[in-house]
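Worked Example 4.2. Consider the chain below.
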Amino acid sequence: MDLTGKTAMIVGAGRGIGRAVAELFAKDGANLVLASRDEAELLELEYKLASHYNSKVLALATDATIPADLQHLVDETVNRFGQIDFLVYAAGKGILKPFGELTVEDFDELINVNTRGAFAAFKAVLPVMERQKSGRVVVLPGILGRAPMANAVAYSAAKYALTGMVKCLALEYKRAGVKFSLMHFGGVDSAFWDNITMRVQRDKMLSIEAAANAVYFAATQPGDGVLGELILQPESHQL
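Applying the procedure from the previous section yields the following structure tokens:
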């Protein structure tokens, strides 16, 4: 697919699925806008994409919980590339623990990153796509934004809210030509699990590459096709 002249913004691009998605867009010639809180990770990725794929890259350290950061990201993107054709919101935070151990601070942190951050990103990006009369938005609520699990009260609350928000936006922006996709992945072997104390078999999870390919597939559906929701789970966790 030739994406020359198209611009893809990836919030949460520093590592994991977001980073892998950025490489897929770069391979097909898109301009890249990379956002993450970790500036060192962004600069390393910017260098890799520019040197390997000759990509035009705008990398900005961005805190998704600060609306002004996201608005600055969008303003700089429009100034440099003139448009935003794709938004992938891959930023996220995970806390999995029994309800009795959850704190209000845990709940607030998950809502801020997983739900409020996405809301702020949409507030900044969607007016641009509405003016263009086109755009594709891919969001990663994961399987816990669709199905419950023990020890995931706060995380699932944040992700269910994200799913509901995106479904409403899809209805509101249909006539503006903006298309939305929800990615409900099962366990992905990513840094998400590094600080999770639950016993899990990471070797049986989805690979980051498999998840990134699904995101890219959703974002680049040809013509008027829309992949509304996709459930992708490891073989051991099939529905």
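The beta strands are 7-11, 31-36, 57-61, 86-89, 135-139, 178-185, 229-232. The longest strand covers residues 178-185. Compare this with Example 4.1 before moving on.
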